[in-house]
Design a protein that fits this description.
Helices cover about 65% and strands about 5% of the residues. It is elongated. The chain starts with a helix and ends with a helix.
Length: about 375
């Protein structure tokens, strides 16, 4: 029996083990879909319908027209009004609103006379993201409203502002015109979900075999350590690609994620990434003394770095330099970049070769360490 035959025999054995435990198989196949839907719907950077309270101290047609501009768009959601500025603290403490708009007395008089009308927009800073977005939208809305007021005033004065020069910025958003969080997140989620499944299931499976003393039977067989590792990883590689196909299908059909780039690049990168993640699982299994410890270690190595240090949710440039170095130790950093490039930007091998090369190097090192550590573990 040659090496390939021995590897295929191990592959068949691993599949038989999986089929004998349908709960594990169902978890491996269904969990990625559940994780995709949960993360895609739960993690969102889209800020809409920000609860807003209005304090209209002018009570004039002009002030009511101004307040109406906050309800016209989809960002602010005017939920009511308050009596005075003294109610702002209580409104924020009770969570009734994130933005309070105060229209002072004399608002209409100032506008009709051509003077500047002061308006207070108070933002709850306990949610920094909503506060930044609320401030930006409020400034843009007031700037636009101010231009409209100036145009009306100039027309009454008999002035023609159309002859005056000005700046007309035309901002275009490429790759994600609607700026949807799901379109941005899902290509990265494909990598993170695969990493979680591969690392955790491989670590637990190998530890279970060690606890059941079935690993010793493989050691005394003519199978080499390399053949044993490859044979154990191939079934999980096949399942991982099946999971990837389902996750990508859900992303494209349910959330409308485009696939613009090289499918071959995505498949090559995914193969390297899956082997790197499976090797991490084997490394965890050689260190963990029990299944419980293996579960915790796999979760710590796959979920947290994959979510926080891969660029999935936060740009790597915005985190401390030390953590940027730490992120290079995890393959999700490279796969998230490749996945986003292929799905959203139409990237090919010429665009992503640095990330692909780093991922390939990582995979070779991880597999080498997995084989050496596993061989050392079974000898003791």
């Amino acid at each position: 029996m040659n090496g390939l035959d021995r590897i295929m025999a191990i592959v068949v054995k691993e599949f038989r083990h999986l089929l004998r435990d349908p709960r594990v198989l169902a978890t491996v196949l269904l969990l990625p879909i559940a994780q995709m839907l949960l993360f895609a719907y739960a993690i969102s950077f889209d800020v809409r319908n920000v609860p807003t309270i209005v304090i209209d101290q002018d009570q004039t047609p002009a002030s009511r027209a101004y307040v109406q501009t906050y309800s016209a768009g989809g960002f602010f959601q005017v939920r009511g009004d308050a009596a005075g500025i003294g109610d702002v603290d209580g409104i924020f403490r009770r969570g009734e609103a994130s933005v309070v708009v105060v229209v002072p007395a004399g608002f209409e008089r100032a506008i009709t006379s051509g003077a500047k009308a002061d308006v207070d927009v108070i933002v709850d800073g306990s949610d920094p993201n909503a506060a930044r977005m609320g401030q930006a939208y409020a400034l843009a809305l007031n700037r636009l409203y101010g231009q409209q007021v100036a145009a009306v005033w100039a027309e009454k004065q008999g002035l023609d502002l159309s002859a005056a020069g000005g700046l007309d910025p035309r901002v275009r958003t490429w790759f994600n015109p609607d700026r949807q969080s799901s379109i941005f997140l899902i290509p990265g989620l494909v990598a993170v979900i695969l990493m979680i499944v591969c690392v955790q299931q491989t670590a637990v499976t190998v530890v279970r075999e060690r606890d059941l003393h079935t690993a010793e039977q493989m050691v005394v067989s003519p199978v080499t350590h390399t053949e044993l590792i490859v044979g154990k990883l191939l079934p999980w590689t096949i399942l991982a690609f099946f999971d990837m196909g389902m996750v990508v299908a859900v992303g494209m059909l349910v959330f409308g994620v485009p696939l613009r780039g090289s499918v071959v690049l995505l498949l090559v990168a995914s193969l390297l990434f899956v082997f790197a993640s499976l090797a991490m699982g084997v490394i965890v299994s050689t260190i963990a003394p029990s299944m419980e410890t293996a579960n915790v270690m796999a979760l710590m190595l796959a979920f947290l770095p994959g979510l926080l240090l891969s660029g999935l949710a936060f740009p790597l440039e915005s985190i401390p330099v030390v953590l940027q170095w730490v992120s290079s130790v995890f393959p999700a950093r490279y796969m998230v970049d490749i996945s986003r490039g292929v799905f959203l930007k139409g990237a090919g091998f010429s665009d992503e070769w640095p990330q692909l090369g780093s991922l390939a190097l990582y995979t070779v090192v991880a597999l080498f360490l997995a084989v050496r550590l596993y061989a050392r573990k079974v000898r003791t």
